[in-house]
TrEMBL record, chain A:
PANTHER family: ARABINOSE-BINDING PROTEIN-RELATED, DIACETYLCHITOBIOSE BINDING PROTEIN DASA. It comes from the Bacteria. It holds the Pfam family SBP_bac_1. Signal peptide: none annotated. This is Extracellular solute-binding protein. InterPro entries: Bact_solute-bd_prot1, SBP, TAT_signal.
TrEMBL record, chain B:
PROSITE patterns: ABC_TM1. Belongs to the binding-protein-dependent transport system permease family. Coiled coil: none annotated. This is Sugar ABC transporter permease. It is found in: Cell membrane. The keyword Transmembrane applies. The chain crosses the membrane at residues 27-46, 88-109, 121-141, 172-197, 226-251, 278-303. InterPro entries: ABC_transporter_permease, MetI-like, MetI-like_sf.
Length: 427, 310
């Protein structure tokens, strides 16, 4: 039907007017919606903090009827891209995830140096941050992030797989090799490694380095900062040699470089593999993959044959920060103050399987973390190594060289030299 | 045959002149589009290019003019040089194989076979799927487990010895990604070649057959020369696509294992968003843009010179 045959010019104008009016009404409706969401605090969190952050926000909203939020989460790899793009464009969320310390493009030091984070130092809870962890929260003496506590890194293991091979969690490196050997002979993959997912590549080094480096040289980071130490001439070489020894002995799944984190998680959950070296913050993902949550446990991953030297990595978990440009700073500050209350710290820490930053009385800790608590009490826990690296290039270089090592494309010395080169670059 | 080609060419040229005749529209008719183009394309590009001469991290206000330092760093950067090598290898593989397969598919579905329309749809179908979706699909196909994806298929047909860690082996990962791109885009090349084939006059083939020319001789002396415009477009598009390939690599390998599949596009992305070096990243982007433009101009100059009309 041709327009000029059936619709007069006047009718056409009427129709256009109607359409315009309908459009205006629709736009009004849209504005109404956005006006209601305009009062919301925009929050973007990291996937690993979802259980705790969501719970804290919901509890705070219940207690404060004028508070509302719009919450979304990103996996670790995408967080840097999406959030950095928003920060660069000046439209960052009011409250967002930030990694503690330094060493990544979304870390507290990097973002606070760019004046993108609000100073939280006037909040009461900041006085309770344990001295040893202040570097994760503070830059130039000012506190910029809140985090509920520390995550530990060790082996998440399938108890049924261990029982099937008749083995117990090992306490020394030699015992670990024996356990792996027995598991392999039983037809169970001893260690699931999803090295195609970049951040997973670093975890075995992180588990070994506290024993091979920090137990002997606790001030290794200070020496690195001063230029008096290097990765290549340190216990890092020993750790990487051990990493490769596990591969050469066939203790990893086939083709770790082609295997993802999700596949490795599933292997441990289902008992196809016996363990995976992981942070406790992802314990829930393993529990989701297992028939029953109690099938899984954790133990400190031993790095040496001297039990006293087997320190553990225990780092402050990803936190939250107030954007310096937030127009809802007052509301966000109140929420962060609420997060800093011991009961909120405890609840959040419990939800993400980490050890609370502080507590009134005895802290509630996930039972699987109990083997790690003596190390924390004895000051044998080392923050995740990247948190004290001076720029955002060392960590991805570490990811890449581990993949190259597993692919047989480089040597331990060349890998560590690349990390040293990245470390020496300016921040 | 040359006489026929020349005569038909003259007619085509006349028709072209007729189409170009008439009253030229006022230049300001183009003004709205030019304003939008300037705001959306030119201004951000020029403003962004300025960052290539600074040490800006990509966030915050702090930035210092560093002159040509980022470009000097680029020529010393092993990762960027490795990425350049990977980019060129990928581009050559994609241009040659994608267009070769596209041409074969076009010739195949340009025949009188009954299912030609259905086959055209099937071969073109991957093109309309999002590259991210295709990448995740092929990531599943490339699962290294012996009982999954391509490895399981190889095993099922008795070729278990050919099972590979398709994306995890540094020597193989680049070619696995290239294959995925070719699988998705060969149908696009096919459609362009098909359009070219539709324009080849049947009379030329008939007269050549009368002269005793065989199938290969007709392809070489009639079809291939007259497909030159389609070849120009296909080679241009696949070259630019290869040189700027990003989505499939980020989705399938993130540039790994190690740096084995990094391209210039993934390097500039990582420099900006992972390493926090936006200034350096922009320098890489600027060099890539100039490189792509230079290659395209050289290519188009050469390919246009060999074009002919029926």
């Amino acid at each position: 039907m041709a327009l000029d045959q059936s619709v007069s010019r006047r009718r056409l104008l009427q129709l256009m007017g109607g359409a315009a009016a309908a459009g205006t009404l629709a736009a009004c409706g849209g504005n109404g919606g956005s006006s209601s969401s305009g009062g919301q605090v925009k929050v973007i969190g990291a996937g690993s903090q979802e259980a705790g952050l969501r719970k804290a926000l919901e509890e705070f909203k219940k207690a404060n009827s004028d508070f509302d939020f719009n919450l979304s989460f990103s996996p670790a790899d995408q967080l840097q891209t999406a959030l950095r793009a928003q920060l660069a464009a000046g439209n960052a969320p009011d409250l967002h995830a930030v990694y503690p310390g330094n060493g990544s493009a979304m870390s507290m030091v990097q973002l606070s140096k760019a004046n993108l984070l609000a100073d939280l130092s006037d909040q009461a809870w900041t006085q309770k941050i344990p001295t040893g962890f202040k570097g994760a929260f503070q830059n130039d003496g000012k506190t910029f992030i809140f985090s509920p506590g520390t995550s530990v890194l060790g082996a998440i293991y399938n108890k049924k797989a261990f029982a099937a091979a008749g083995v117990e969690p090992p306490a020394t490196w030699s015992e670990l090799l024996t356990v792996c050997d027995k598991l392999k002979k039983k037809g169970i993959v001893p260690i699931a490694l999803g090295a195609q997912t970049p951040w997973v590549t670093q975890l075995i080094d992180y588990a070994l380095v506290p024993g091979t480096v920090y137990a002997k040289t606790p001030d290794f980071d200070d020496k690195m900062t001063a230029g008096n130490a290097s990765f290549a001439d340190s216990g890092w070489a020993d750790a990487m040699d051990k990493y490769l020894e596990l591969q050469k002995k066939g203790f990893f799944n086939d083709n770790p470089n082609g295997t993802t984190y999700e596949q490795a998680t599933s292997m441990v959950g289902t008992g196809k593999a016996a363990m995976a070296v992981q942070v406790s913050a992802v314990l829930q993902a393993f529990r989701d993959a297992a028939p029953a949550p109690d099938d899984l446990g954790m133990f400190p991953f031993p790095a040496t044959d001297v039990e006293a030297d087997n320190w553990i990595p225990g780092g402050v978990v990803v936190g939250i920060a107030l954007s310096a440009k937030s127009k809802k700073a007052d509301q966000v500050r109140k929420f962060i103050e609420y997060c800093g209350r011991p009961e909120t710290v405890n609840a959040w820490a419990e939800a993400v399987a980490c050890v609370p930053l502080y507590s009134d009385g005895e802290a509630k800790v996930d039972p699987v973390l109990k083997p790690f608590l003596p190390y924390l009490e004895d000051d044998k826990a080392v923050p995740f190594m990247d948190q004290r690296w001076p720029n955002a290039e060392v960590q991805p270089t570490h990811f890449a060289v581990v993949q190259e090592l597993l692919g047989g494309k480089t040597t331990v010395q060349n890998a560590l030299k690349k990390m040293d080169e990245a470390y020496r670059k300016t921040a | 045959m040359t006489a026929i080609t020349t005569a038909v060419g003259r007619e085509a040229a006349k028709a072209s002149r007729r189409r170009g005749g008439g009253i030229a529209p006022p230049w300001f008719f183009a003004a709205p589009a030019l304003v939008v183009y300037a705001l959306v394309m030119l201004y951000p590009s020029i403003a962004g290019a300025g960052s290539a001469f600074t040490d800006w991290s990509g966030v915050g206000e702090q930035r210092t003019f560093v002159g040509l330092e980022n470009f000097k760093q680029l020529v010393r950067d092993d990762q960027a040089l490795g990425a350049l090598r990977n980019t060129l290898l990928l581009t050559v593989a994609i241009v040659v194989v994608q267009n070769g397969i596209g041409l074969l598919l076009a010739l195949g579905v340009h025949t009188g076979i009954k299912s030609r329309m259905a086959l055209r749809v099937i071969f073109f179908a991957p093109v309309v799927v999002s590259p991210v979706m295709v990448s995740f699909l092929w990531k599943y196909v490339y699962n290294p487990a012996p009982d999954a994806g391509l490895n399981a298929a190889l095993d099922a047909i008795g070729l278990g010895a050919l099972r590979q860690d398709w994306l995890g082996d540094p020597s193989l990962a680049l070619w696995s990604v290239a294959f995925t791109v070719i699988w998705q885009c060969a149908g696009y090349s096919m459609v362009i070649f098909l359009a070219g084939l539709e324009g080849v006059p049947q009379e030329l083939h008939e007269s050549a057959m009368v002269d005793g020319a065989g199938t290969f001789a007709r392809f070489r002396h009639i079809t291939w020369p007259l497909l030159a415009p389609a070849t120009t477009i296909n080679v241009m598009l696949s070259t630019v696509g290869g040189l700027t390939l990003f989505t499939q690599i980020i989705a399938m390998t993130n540039g790994g294992p190690g740096y084995a599949t990094d391209t210039l596009s993934t390097v500039l992305y990582k420099q900006a968003f992972v390493y926090g070096k936006f200034g350096y990243s922009t320098a890489v982007a600027l060099v890539l843009a100039i490189f792509v433009a230079a290659v395209s101009f050289i290519q188009i100059g050469y390919l246009r010179s060999r074009e002919t009309t029926a």
